[in-house]
Specification:
The protein is mainly alpha-helical. It has one domain. It is 71% helix and 0% strand. Helix 1 runs antiparallel to helix 2.
């Protein structure tokens, strides 16, 4: 979901920042890219915080860690060797 949200923010900012100056924005709309970067940075911080919280919970209760099948381990090993 966050990937779709961040893509939408980038597309919107890119579209709006390329519009010409008008009466409400006499210097153009180039700052939309800066504002979008700020929003994306906040979104990344929230995702990183969620990952950190999840990892702390996994350390406290190891039973919540998903088990990995042998096929997945072999596939990862083969991929690493290529």
């Amino acid at each position: 979901m966050t990937g779709q949200l961040s893509d939408a923010i980038v597309l919107l900012a890119n579209h709006d920042s390329h519009q010409e100056a008008d009466s409400q924005h006499p210097y153009g709309r180039h700052r939309f890219e800066t504002a979008a970067s700020l929003v994306l940075g906040i979104l990344l911080l929230m995702v990183g915080g969620g990952m950190m919280l999840r990892s702390v919970q996994s350390v406290k209760d190891p039973s919540t860690i998903a088990t990995v099948s042998q096929v997945a381990l072999w596939a990862a090993g083969v991929r690493l060797l290529r």
